[in-house]
Design brief:
Layout (H helix, E strand, L loop, with lengths): L3 H29 L29 E5 L3 H14 L2 E4 H7 L9 E5 L8 H9 L4 E5 L3 H6 L1 H6 L2 E10 L2 E4 L9 E4 L2 H6 L12 E7 L3 E8 L14 E7 L4 E5 L8 H11 L5 E5 L2 E11 L5 H8 L3 H20 L4 E5 L12 H13 L3 E5 L8 H15 L7 E5 L3 H10 L7 E4 L8 E4 L2 E5 L2 E2 L5 H13 L2 E7 L1 H4 L8 H15 L11 H13 L2 E6 L2 E6 L7 E6 L3 E7 L1 E7 L2 E6 L3 E8 L8
Parallel strand pairs: 1-2, 1-3, 3-4, 4-11, 13-14, 13-21, 14-15, 15-16, 16-17, 17-19, 20-21
Antiparallel strand pairs: 5-8, 6-7, 6-9, 9-10, 10-11, 12-24, 18-19, 22-23, 23-28, 24-27, 25-28, 26-27
Helix pairs in contact: 2-8, 8-14, 10-16, 11-12
Amino acid sequence: MISRRNYVSITIMMVMVFFLFIFSGAAKIALSNFEKNEYDFDRSKLQIRNTSEVDEASLRGTVLFYGSSEKMLHMAQQWCSYRRYILTTISEEQEAETDEIPAYSLVLIDGTSLTEENLEDIYAYADAHIPLVFASVPSVKLLRENSKLSQLLGITNIQEASITLDGMTLYENFLMGGKVIYQVTESDIKNDKNAKKRQDLNLQIPWFILNSGSKVYMDGILPEGYEDLDAAYKPPVIWRYMTPTDTVFVVNNNFMESDIGLGMLTAMEGELSDFYVYPVVNAQSIVELNYPTFTEENTERLHEIYSRDSTAVLRDLVWPGIAAVSAHNQSYPSVCFTSKLDYSVTAHPNGELLQYYLQLLRELHGEAGISMVPWKGKSVEEKLAYDKRIYDAYADEYTMLFAYAKDLDAEEAAKMLDTSGFDDVFTILRDYDATDSMIGAIDGKIVLQISNEGSSHTFSEDLRTKSFQTVLGYSVIGQDFAQIVYPENKNDQWEKVYDRFSRYTNTYWKNYDYYDELTLSETAQRCNRYFQLEYDLKIQGERISIQSNASEEHPAYFVLQTGARTIQDMTGGTYELINDGRYLITLTDSKAVIDCSNKEQLTFWR
């Protein structure tokens, strides 16, 4: 039996624990300072410059595009702007009427545009010892009729004019992210009935046999019936053929007609020298789009699926999943708020929910921005005006630095933001658009694209991610949560979306964990520094010297490929090994010196 004294002591202790619990929660809220954006910064001195505005002294040379494909030309224009080359076309060169071949850094050739009449041009570039990239292969008919052209490409035999592959293998040390087998097996289909949808690559290509002097970066997986064939006879998809005087790269697919070609061109350029150094953004962001809605919507349907209203679904089911993905990836969520999805709904937004999610974001060191485009019921201008009143009433001290514009024209979106009172926004995020640049600037704002949808990861999307990570060290994954509140089918339900979202971010994205995980406004600032970067590179023997405008406050980032060498020492910055012979370099001083040694020539003394 408990004595009165013990009873009183236990009661006092329980009361003390209760108040400690209450006060600790209150203190946590008070100290979190969630009303402020911890990523806000002084934008009065912010200068935004696009890659097309670089100083002429920073330009590295001239690339010639020879062909007629508009898609290929767009890819080449984008790549040259990132790598700071001047791009010229064959029509421009013909107008210049120059007899001598300029000292091109690279000639990019649309092989499908070649005919008997223009082959002499290609041979002339080869005779001038200019590296050639056949962004597509010439026709099989032309190759059969011209042994000199076949020999230039390293082709000794045309096995079949066309074969349908079962998949493809991308090998190590070409694109970032390592080796990948792009094949859907029976086991894959057994474990996932939607596995077949991942295979969206072009699998029908000509089958060539290559000269022994070729290096294959990607080849095809043959269908059943070819099991006994020697591996050397696999259909090549991407290869390099070298002679003492020529270097020719060939892409036996349509990759160069999209921005997948950006990373492939970067990888090819890296194969041309012992040392290869180029700047990158070094930034990755996960962005939650149209999350949360602060208004009760589609209640009846959500009760059928989850036995909860939209507030409870987004708070109790979805948010823990977002937090889990952030914790697993050690990333910081960027969330594009929306007051409503359907603005024809008469219910008024709950401003306390806005404050609640700002507090949750602060605990994860995340950041809030705005969603510009309504799912239904209002124009963009009306939505912005409506949401502005909500933010002013419940989060007037929080600075929104980024906005999701979906598929709006970036210039129009920038004007709408300024006229709607969202003039603190300096970053516009758009859905992926193959006809536009991945990163850029317009009207004083940084424009970024979503590189991949968070719950989708087809083989072409995987290659695209590898491409952007290779050429820019950049990736933005966007997941739209409007489908959770307004699901069209079972695939839009949260458990399905979360399974795909977490699988992509926790598995495939881990291949690039050497790049920094940042909020979207931080990623935009890194992109702007990439645009602003000025540097001069000198290589003397095993020593690399880089002069730049980097500083400890504003570092610059580079990828360094050393081939058979390893870094022994560095001043003016730090380095991190990505994989064998490839490093991520961080410059924190205006002058950096990197000393390397050749692994193959190291001498060991007993």
